[in-house]
Amino acid sequence: MGLNEITARIRQAEAAAGRAPGSVTLIAVSKVQPAARVAAVLEQGHRVFGENRVQEAAGRWPPFQARYDGISLHLIGPLQTNKARQAVGMFDAIHSLDRPRLAQTLARLAQERGSCPDLFIQVNTGEEPQKAGVAPGETDAFVAECRALDLPVRGLMCIPPVDEEPSLHFALLAKLAARNGLSGLSMGMSADFERAIAQGATHVRVGSAIFGAREEGEGLLPGSGNRF
Ligand SMILES: *Cc1c(COP(=O)(O)O)cnc(C)c1O
Questions:
Q1: What is residue 1's predicted lDDT score, i.e. its pLDDT?
Q2: Nearest Cα to 42, choosing from 69, 11, 6?
Q3: Whose CA is nearest to atom 14 of ligand 1?
Q4: Which CATH architecture has domain 3-211?
């Protein structure tokens, strides 16, 4: 498919939903993709990328950042507390804030640095035991807890169960965000980003539809809910 087609489909979905053109940010999920494919998308002018592992991103991005201005990196995978320092130094946004201890660590680091990446709280909308994220019923309390720590919470993020209609999960996430006064909605992947935009997504995370299929089993982290 490629970047141009996905961008065009995003513009169409925005228009169909009565949303302003450009109101949805495309995060090109480059995890596990060969560097040449990533370079090609950079050459086309795209600058917003998603990675799901801190270590992999740290190895891959510094050379690209030396060559291309304005790269924005988003962490979309689980964040271990002991990698938080490295993550806040590298990412512009973190989409996987999912527990009090991580919130406390990020707050401490933010104070130390005087800055913090934009944060999205991951919600386990399907309440799947193997998946990260706060339960829908715990979301209001966790948002309040993060705000009390002065963290820049921009929105909510979800990864719907693979075997359910994602629109129901997107609608639930939108409802939780609205009632907490949050404008950011990180939802929608290759198979369902148009449905996510119809439900109000502000950030779609699209990997294989831009770059091509990843190697079987790659990018999979036990417990992350990332079954790809
Ligand atoms: C890998 C991944 C994506 C992208 O998935 P595609 O189906 O390749 O678009 C989106 N979000 C998260 C959290 C991921 O881990």
A1: 76
A2: 69
A3: 226
A4: Alpha-Beta Barrel (3.20)
